[in-house]
Amino acid sequence: MDNNNNGGSSDDDEPSKEDDDAREPEQSSESQSQSELFNIRVAKARLQHAHDRAVLKRKPRYLPFKESRRWARAMWMQNEIDWEDWLNDGRRNPYVPSQPDVVYADSGFSTWHDFLNGPVKD
Known about the structure:
It is built from five helices and no strands. The longest helix is centred in the N-terminal third of the chain and has 41 residues. The protein starts with 16 loop residues before the first helix and ends in a 6-residue tail after the last helix. The mean pLDDT is 81. Helix content is 57%, strand content 0%. It is mainly alpha-helical.
């Protein structure tokens, strides 16, 4: 008769304690790696969020009034309607404000005619 079939345990049926001990470091190492990866991803997401918030808080950076006017005059627009049509077509220079009359109110903007017309060099 076979001793393995009478309720006794065999080496093939159950892993020994030595096998369990050998597996624990692999499992904890794997879970530790996953935990570190998770922490890195969380830290990266936090940094990205902080950067995005800082960028959104920045004031737009526009050209000085005279340079913006020079650029606008080179575009050959005649009036505010041409300017609005140009903006509505999806065109835009990020360094020239879409509302120069508001942004440059204290910096030299007097009229749309002056802003859009006249010699390119002044």
